[in-house]
Queue: 3 jobs
Job 1
Amino acid sequence: MDQVLPQPPITPTPPISPDFPPSNPKNHVIAWIVAGAVILTIGIGIGLVAEKYLSPPQISSYKECVKANGNQIQTIYPGTCVTDDGRSFREVLTDEEKKKLQPPDETTSWKTYTTDFWGITFKYPDFDATCCGISGAVTGNPVTLITLADSTTVVPNTDAPFDGIALYGIPNNGNLTLDQYVEKEKAIFLADFKSMADPGQVNQGKTTKTTVAGQPALVLTNYSWDGITRTYFKSNANSFIFEISKKEKSPNHFVSYDQILSTFKFLEQTTLVPADLQTQVSGVRCAPVSTEPIVTITIPMDNVPQPRCKQVTANQKLQVVNNSQRSIKINVGKNQTDVSPAQSYQFPEALGDFLAPGGHSIFGAEIWLK
């Protein structure tokens, strides 16, 4: 029998520890910095995404305001949208939509007054042009062009005030400035006031500025006893001064007056031959205005025109008859021709179409255009 020898005890081998290099504190700091940067980047990214998808949209227009939830849409036109923080945005309209918002033009149905001679036009409601008179300018030979009254405010057969307007034209023969002419008017009104006023009574006249037909204008209020408000302005060519008289039934009653005033316009007009006479020749009788459509000036054998002086209107035409023994050269405005002896020449246009108001010396004759 074999003998089993005893085995020596087995001693366990101790575990072998890994060989780590010695720890460096700086490496820990760098790792924390990198980790922090990564975390911060992730946080910013999440914030940007949240702002884009979760924050309310920025509003800068009416359309953006309407699309955003919770804003107030006001039921007016054009529309208005009000944000929660109180900002408001108005709807932008097209040009066609803007036109629809404009009030209707009442003047489209009004009548129109136009004078080619004076070169001015304006619109007015259905007023009466025959019933009433309104006083106007008082210096410089003013001509009444038209007087209009609102018949609904007129009390027949009385001197009661009414709503009305009158237009006067004044030839500016003295080439006055607007201020110079208005000062002459004021002097007359103040003299009348002084002769009629009670002792110590002060004139309440006031002068203001405005614009009529694109021209500077002066307005006289409360200068005269008649209660007329007078507005003065000059023509583009400086040939005329215009005066508009406003009469009212009561203060601020004439509601369409400013609208009438806004329609005044100057016509496109050819250049008129300016007046070359300031006063009538002493001792010469001037024949008054006649009714015939053609006024005749005759040059006889002695070359003294007949009549020597003649008053005419803008609508009349002029004819020259040459009974002398020499030719006459015509050079007035666009009319340039020679008239032989025993011949005549008739100007094709009315006198007001080429002559400015005032006195004109034509072939030695005085023609005074009213």
Job 2
Amino acid sequence: MRQEVSSFNPSVFVPASAPVADAEDEPPGPRSSLAFSATAVPCPRPGNDATTIVPFPRHRVGSTSGRSQFRRRFFPGVSNKLWNDWHWQVSHRIRNGTQVRAMLQLSGEEDLALEGAGPKLPLGITPYYMSLISPDDSHQPLRRTVVPTLQEMVKTPGEADDPLGEESQSPVPGLVHRYPDRVLLLLSDFCSTFCRYCTRSRVVGHGVLRPRRSRLERALAYIRATPTVRDVLLSGGDPLMLSDDRLAWILLQLRQIPHVEMVRIGTKAPAVLPQRITRQLVRMLRRYHPLWMSLHFIHPDECTVEAYRACAQLADAGIPLGSQTVLLKGINDDVETMTDLVHHLLKMRVRPYYLYQCDPITGSSHFRTSVEKGLEIIRGLRGFTSGYAVPTYVVDAPGGGGKIPLMPNYVVGQQGDELVLKNYENSLYRYPNRDCSISGL
């Protein structure tokens, strides 16, 4: 039987061992695909380091036409080399109301929020991420996550600046020890793009948590002196906003601690600043395995060709990738949007890991859904798509209680020796639930 082999888009997936010219500055985009015939795919030979990728259908991602118009209008003359330089992206962030007004047609609530003192969390958006935002639709999902509104200044019952009680579980500055065998190490308070629902908006972007060596040494000393710690999660702020050398120093210190078995890095860079995932960064990271990454994708519109490429580079380096998605009202709180997102993530080799109920930080009521909505989404995923695509839905308990997993109740009850269960189609089934160890059978 003849085997059909689809075209492969080299701009979406680049194997780690494939030679890539250092001078390649063109952004990944819809270029002509290479056609491979079925007979042209050789079988790998033992000892042959060359990696041959079996062709995969081109991923469908959003159109780049609006983004090109954005660049021509607001950054004319900026070369592809500069646009794809993460340092340039960070130094040219959109940081004030004047810049936003020039680029977006603001709603009344957005305009007023950018006046005067404004919200507690600073404004910061990379040019790349701004190019994904609708200039005239204030209800566009990505726009709502990064452009402030007056609703951020409304505090509702149950909200707090530090709802998870991190400050009370911080034995040294910038380190949270909540669970017995793992700690959270906050490297800095800087992000390239500030999410308006950020659980650490009390510190992020305010310059109070800098990656000073003296502070980091105190945190490392605590980890060295606490042998129960086997897992360290680096977060912030975004750890990837540190230089490669600074991040490598931290990873080296952790690798030299005998009881630290694994290190995780939490970052939103592949979604808001995919230019940060460079060959140099990836080469450095792969030296410190076992290393894991928790990425932060919240909507399918973030799954661009650039994001696909960034995740491919990390995955090719052997770094397991998981996504921690926050459930947000009017942004991703329907089954269709969430299904589209998790399918994109799997194609990007990112495992949907957690679906977080939005934390009750001060001024977040417009982002929070009911818990029932989250359970409805899990019901809409379980059984209707791959198990790998279904994240664990969790509430991070206020006051420092930690993550509590929630699932729809598929147990109807017990009838005699049988457990009555309900499947994803709401059909009932019986499972023999006798304790055979005491039945003599």
Job 3
Amino acid sequence: MKRSLRRLFLLPFVCALPVQPVSFSAEIAPADPPALPEDGATIVDCYDTATANLERICEDYRRIKALELAQIRDIAFLDAYENIQSVMPELKPINRDLLRKRITDPAEITAHKREVELAESEVRNMVELAARLLAEIEVQQRMQEAGSPPKPLTLEEIVQSPEYDPTKEPPAQAGESRAGGSEALKQLSEKARENPQHRAVDVTAEMRAAAGSGSPDRQELKGSSLTAQQMESQVFQPRPTNYEVGRKVVSEGGPPVEWMFIDTWYTIGPFPNPQRVNLNTKFPPETVVNLSATYPGKGGKMVKWKFLQTNRDRCVPHDDEEYAIYYAYTEIWFDEAMDLWVAIGSDDKANVWINNLPVWISGDELKPWRVNEGLRKVHFQKGLNKVLYRVENGWRSTAFSLGIQIAR
């Protein structure tokens, strides 16, 4: 068992090695985790070293997310850093004394085995989270590198280049006309933001630019060709009567309805928001979705993800309370890549991300739920599409909805 735990621990430790640390202020730089003893490492040593490595990875991840937020909002890094909470989950405590104890009494074998299994389970969860964070860190680094303008060539470098021809015009600097990844994400965020003058907005081009993809061939459902102006002119009922609920969209043979509302979610909360002071605070689920994690919530109460399913067009998160923040997560499956209109409604403020890209940012005002509060034409990729929904409850009750126009 000890050898198995050691192999489990080494995965995040080894995966972390090639990732270059992000250099920011020394005030928030994390300490190096302790090294695992080469010989004689105990289960407790493995658990503690894995925890320290995960804390380091979570801190690097937080700083990268803060850098991204600082670029999008054009604010100081330290201000952005303070608005993002650590994604380090609350770990279940292990009985260190029992795990270190030499077992001689057969009556203690069962309890000792139970503690070993708990430690192994926690390390497995840490390995999975570390691997996901490291993968996302690498993606963020690639996006930053793609969005960073290349170093300008000096005159000496141009002249010494083998391709240099003095009879021709100097070569154009690569990337001069290309918008960076962070700039594309900023443009997408601006179009995702609620606009009282234009309720319907097409953000498909910005989503592709932010994701670094082109314009792939795709099969669109009937209704996807509607322009923003046409969507604005449509007469909506307070609630669509011609809809079904589900999480699967097919290009042929689907239900003969106009709208499909997402019926299955995992929700987590409440997170504290006294007098709405945390409207812009990023709680852990906003930076990484870890369905097995537990975090401190409102009033210090531990919160975790809970399954939610409904047969209605709107959902109410578990443990609904006033002045709180909730998150909802789901995955929607498409048999083809499609550009479709979605209807978003929330009580109160909400943000929606599809495949980690912002598609809806509502205003800050307190408001009742409306099924068609915001209309966005978004790009769904073939296969699974990840959706994260953040919703605030100011006072009274809360609700949120996401509908996809799949009209034939």
